[in-house]
TrEMBL record:
Entry keywords, A to Z: Cell membrane, Disulfide bond, G-protein coupled receptor, Glycoprotein, Membrane, Receptor, Transducer, Transmembrane, Transmembrane helix
Major localization listed first in the record, in broad terms: membrane
Family note: Belongs to the G-protein coupled receptor 1 family.
Membrane-spanning residues: 28-52, 64-89, 95-122, 143-165, 185-211, 248-271, 283-302
Gene3D superfamilies, per database record: Rhodopsin 7-helix transmembrane proteins (1.20.1070.10)
SMART domains reported in the protein's UniProt record: 7TM_GPCR_Srsx (SM01381)
Region (Disordered): 1-20
Subcellular location: Cell membrane
Every G-protein coupled receptors family 1 profile domain range: 44-300
Protein name, entry field: Adenosine receptor B1a
PANTHER family: G-PROTEIN COUPLED RECEPTORS FAMILY 1 PROFILE DOMAIN-CONTAINING PROTEIN, OLFACTORY RECEPTOR AND ADENOSINE RECEPTOR
Amino acid sequence: MTIQVSDKPHSSDNTSPPPEDLVISPNVTYMAAELVIAFFSTTGNLLVCVAVGLNRKLRTVTNYFLVSLAVADICVGAIAIPCAILTDIGMPHHNLYLCLLMLSVLIMFTQSSIFSLLAVAVERYIAIFMPFRYQVLMTPRNAVLVILATWILAFLIGLVPLMGWHKTPPDTGYCFFVLVVDMTYMVYFNFFACVLTPLVIMFLIYAQIFVTVKQQVRRITSEQSGRGDGQIRTAASMRREMKTATSLFLVLFLFTVCWIPLHIINCFLLLCPRCYVPLELLLTAIILSHANSAVNPFLYAYTMTAFRDTFKAIFMCCRTVFSDNKSSPKPFLFSAHSLCMCCGLTWRIPQQSHSASSRL
């Protein structure tokens, strides 16, 4: 969602920036930062997808939703960021609908990310508060249906500007965000209805999970003396649920921290069109929002043992494959099959015996 503003304040008698005030020269620092983010977003989230595909222990309903989130982040790195770089210099020229499509793709993928995070939160809620119905409600088939529904809805939300909710394009023909996309759509529909509302729901869900699990662990611990192993196992299970919920909440928290500043700037531009927004502040908010797509793989590796061990196994496999290729006189074709054969290491990673509802 690249927003173009002048690098100097506008006069108080103008309600919108004139064409000559637009920044149409390439910002090398901004573009370099975007390219770095695109690289890490694409490769890191591909690694997440490969890890779930190779390691059967990671094929849980929770991780299916995380794969959906990873696919959205891959699309941000491979599609949305290149589009943002092009629109940063006003391209494409004199093609309104292609311009709107290029500006809308990031909205689509961001909305898909939000819905994936919401699906994870609801899945965790069912696992903790409805454990006896979990196996019926959270089947792999139902998870796939939910993922398909979230992507369809995300695309419909992102395509709203193409359906007519946009500004009349300027005579210059430049494809700039604030001159083409209607800020009432971005603030009232996209932010308040489609972003802020799900975020509030997710924070409430995690707050209830943390409070309830903490109370149950405290109650079981206080009643543990003189009781059997059943309560000990229940307390251990509750602690695992707390750890899982904490890791997933961190994903949500980082998403919020990365995206809220840009949405606040959008609100500022709508409610105070004559106010001055420094270009450096705006570009920083844009880069921060895009950077969220690159951080999740690092977060998984840091907080989730199963992902971390699988990532290590994949790196060891790749190192072995390329080492053998370098030392072998015969030509070697690196392929998914060779990686799978080598990644027999993955299945020997020690796994804790977690319940199906909480294993990551």
